[in-house]
Structure formats: structure tokens, C-alpha cells
Amino acid sequence: MSKIYDSYFYNIKDIDRTDGAYKELEVNQEVPAQKLKIPELLKPDNQTETDTFYTVEARTGETQFLPDKKTKTFGYNANYLGKTIVFENGKNIHINLKNSLPILTTFHWHGLNVSGPIIDGGCHAPVYPGETNHIDFTVDQPAATLWLHAHPCPATAQEVWKGLATMVLIKDKITDQLPIPKEYGIDDIPLILQDRNFHEDNQFNYRKDYDPDGTLGTVPLINGTINPYFEVKTQKVRFRILNGSNRREWRLHFSDDLTFAQIGSDGGLLEEPVYMKKLMITCAERDEVVVDFGNYQPGDQVILYSDKTPILTLKIHNFKKDSDNLPDHLVDIVDHPVTENTKIHEVLMSGMDETVAINGKKFNMQRIDDRQQVGNTEYWDITNNNEVDGGMIHPYHMHGTLFKVVSRNGKAPYPNELGLKDTISVNPNETVRIKVTCPKTGVYMNHCHILEHEDGGMMAQFEVFDPNHPKEYRLMDMNTLMQAFAKELKIPESEVWLGGMDSYEKTNTEM
Ligand code: C2O
Ligand code: CU
Ligand code: CU
Q: Which of 1, 31, 36, 57 has its CA 20 to 30 A from that of 87?
């Protein structure tokens, strides 16, 4: 067998446990063990050989997390989180984006190769309450685990906290033929990791929990389930792990120090499995792992932990012996050579709390901060200049591209980040060089995926341009959005509170 990694790769000094405001996860004692919720698959409205039609509805709901009172939540075609959406590579997709919430939202397809800024669904594409927008695109990327989440700046964090996030799976023929677990809900299991707090009457209270450096909860929610267990009925199980938390890094490991194989990351499968005992996943990242329970007996239990807190119990049942090894080689990943005379784009993530910024500036919807020619492959150097002591890891995300990680402070990337990525953690005092190819023209956002940093202005925009077909974009502006929020909430504009606003006010920056 290949090398087994048994470290998180990250420097202990940089992980969020060392932060003053850090809160450990705790086992909730009020809730008995319950079956892990597996989100249903979203049914298409209609389907032909070549085309698939969906309606994705953002709506309010009530969710029974704790005994007694239900929690008021948001979800996509569901009370909390959403139904899992499946896209097949090559198909033409048509989606009605329906907003049944009382407030505006956007539908951002994180990791999906679609044009910005409208189809991509960032802050420029609000859908107002009671309205339905429509998008069409053709799926053009390998099989992967992506996600959909709300992205109305600066209210992304609070809408996601309420529940607006769901998994999006891309399927393709190559991956369908690989001998890896692929039966959704049976041996191919989504795991959306989140942390929340419950306040009076079992409600969320985002404003009370708000932390400009990222809001933490102490209750682990896995697919919206507290104290979940999953019944293992196959020898191998594939977990598609999504860190859907606002701020928390999850440090995953199993009981008995069980070895598992990471087979995929943000943009799809890795070229080869990476065998490991510990896996840290930062905000917005996806990691697909395969766990082999071959050495366990019916009745055994395997526990998945984050740090010291058990977050999922795996109950072993009878299963058919499966002596196949995972393939040594999974897929080929296209690696574009860097365009000749490429300029090196610089992104400096600086500050903490309210002072967070990119290249010294806070996000401005009307400003384009960088440009790259469509189809070119260029280096982007992403630097986190936080101090090693007292700094934090910033998970850097780009819309409009799946990139390759080239180096960390000039050294090789971690072995599990050699696949396609859309989010990469950058340690304090580190520069991560990535190689970026953008297949579609448009305006896209790049930002820290700690949602409160994003709302607080650690975000920028870049245009992917075609020199032969220059385009003009009508970009959204903050006034329009604030007026809309005020109207929807039926309060004066001066009373509107959205998480990230504080960071602009306290640093005297125009939104
Ligand atoms: Cu998950 Cu701007 O994105
Ligand atoms: Cu995104
Ligand atoms: Cu950050």
C-alpha cells in the first residue's frame, strides 16, 4: 500500500483552536442519537435526452432540531439545507430560481463552470421575494461535489446560517465506470458539516452569535442532524464531505485511528487516492473519502470525530465482502501550461476582525480589481500576511475557475490538494501560488470563504475578458440592495443590520 499520512498537514499554531474566540464543539445532551438525514435528490420538472429542467425554491421552514419547539429556518426545496441537485456533464440545464423567502437572496453555484456575474449567482444576481429568475447553462466539467448557497453581500453569512446551502453533484461517464462506491444514500453519502447555537425557544440568533472573524456554534449539525448515526451495510462507504460552516475548520479522524482514502477534492476526483488518518477541511472545501470497514464485525461502531468531539456514529451491519482495492489511478486531470509571459496576479489577504481586506481594500460591487484573459492560464499568488502567532487561516475561493495549486511558500502543496480546487486554505505568513484558467468570460468574485470575512469585505472581483469581444457589465450596487432589504424588512434603511456592515462602518469604508 502507498504511504499513509497521519498529520493534518497544518501547523498547530495556525488552526482556529488557538484563536481567543474559539469554541469547541460539544455533544448535545438533549437529543438522543438519530438517523443521519440524507437529503433527498431534487426531482427534475422535466427531462429529455439532452436537457434537464429544475425549480430550485428558497423558502422558509421549521426544523425539529431539539425537543420541543421547532427552529425557524431557510432551505432549498426543504426546511433546512436542501435537496441534493444532480447535473450530468454535457446536459443543458434550465433552472427556475424561485425566491419564496421574505427577503432577497441569490443562488450561487459554488464550483460550477458557468458565466458570471448572473448565472454564477453572486451579489449581482438578486432574486427578490416572490420573484422567479431563470438561468440556462450547459454542464462542462468532470464529476464533482459542488454546492449551492446564498450569496447576497453582505448578508451571505446570515442566510447560510439560516440554512441556505445544499449539495450539487456533477456526474460523468468516466467516474460512473470507476469501481468506487456510487449509490447515493447507500454507500455514497453526503456529509454537510455545520455548527450552530440554539437560543431562546430553540431559535437561531445570528446577531447574538455574530463574530466578525467568523461565527462559531458549539452544536455539530451533520446534514442538519444532531447526534447522527449511519448504518453501514457495504464494506466501503464514500463520504462526500462539505465544510458548510461559516467559519469552523473541521479536523476529522475516526476511532481506532482508521486509515481512509481521500479520492476527491473541490473540483472532482484526484488522480490517485491519498491514504490518511487525519483530514482537516476548511470552509467551503469538499473532500471525498472512501472508508473501508472490512476489519469490523456486525454490531461494531466506528466513530467520526472532529478534534475530540464525536460527530457521527457508524453502526456496522452485515455486508458482502468486497476484496477489491481502490484503483491506484482514478482520473487524468488536465494541467494547462502557464501562458507565456504571464503576469503574476497578487492577492494579499490582510487583517482580522473588522479590518479584513484584499490588497488593502474592502469589497466594492462596482469596482473590478483584476482582469484575466479568457482561456489563458496565469499564476495567482495568494498571500495571508497575518502573523503566525495570533493570525488565522483564510480559505481563499475564486468563482469562475477550477485551479491547480502550485506551491506553498515555494514548497510542494499538501498531497491531497493536487486535484482541481476552487478554495484553498492559506496559512498565516504564507503565499500559495495557484495556476488559474478561466473558461468563460464574465465578472467573478474572489474572497475569503470565512463567511463573515467575505461579508466584511475580504473580497474582490475580477473580469475574465475576451479581447476580441469586449463586454460591458451592469453591476449591482449596495444602495439598491440596502433599499430592498429595508423595504422587505419593513424598517428604515438606517435600521437594517447585516453582519458584514459593521466592518465597513468601523473602518469608515463605503460599501
Ligand atoms: Cu461559496 Cu463566493 O462563494
Ligand atoms: Cu463560489
Ligand atoms: Cu478570512
A: 36
Separation of CA 309 and ligand 3 centre (Å): 24
Residue range 261-266: mean pLDDT, rounded:
98
- Reduced to 3 states (helix: H, G, I; strand: E, B; else coil), residue 105 is strand
Atom of ligand 1 nearest to the CA of 147: 1
Architecture of domain 344-478: Sandwich (2.60)
Q: pLDDT per residue over 373-382, tens digit each?
A: 999 999 999 9
Residue carrying C-alpha cell 487524468: 332
User: Tens digit of pLDDT for each residue in 294-303?
Assistant: 999 999 999 9
CA of 156 to the centre of ligand 3 (A): 14
The closest residue, in CA terms, to atom 1 on ligand 1 is 110
Handedness of CA 398, 148, 187, 293 (dihedral sign): positive
Quick one: which atom of ligand 1 is closest to the CA of 122? 2
Cα-to-centroid distance, 393 and ligand 3 (Å): 7
pLDDT of residue 1: 58
The ligand placed nearest to the CA atom of residue 19 is 3
Residue located nearest, by CA, to atom 3 of ligand 1:
110
Q: Which ligand is nearest to the CA of 386?
A: 3
Give residue 2's pLDDT: 82
Within the chain, all domains assigned CATH 2.60.40.420 are found at 37-176, 344-478
**What global pTM score does this model have?**
0.98
Q: Residues near ligand 1 with C-beta < 6 Å?
A: 108, 110, 122, 149, 151, 284, 397, 399, 445, 447, 449
N-term to C-term CA, the chain: 54
Give the confidence band of 14 by pLDDT, cuts at 50, 70, 90.
confident
Domain 37-176 has CATH 2.60.40.420: yes
CA of 453 to the centre of ligand 3 (A): 5
The answer to whether the beta carbons of residues 209 and 294 sit under 8 Å apart is no
pLDDT at 286: 98
- DSSP-assigned states of every residue in 255-289: GGG--EEEEEETTEEEEEEEEES-EEE-TT-EEEE
pLDDT digits (tens, 9 = 90+) for 23-38: 999 999 999 999 999 9
H or E element that contains 208: helix 206-209
| Secondary structure (3-state) at 453 | helix
Q: From the CA of 146, how far away is ligand 1's center (Å)?
A: 11
The conformational region for residue 360 under phi > 0 = left, psi -120 to 50 = alpha, else beta, is left
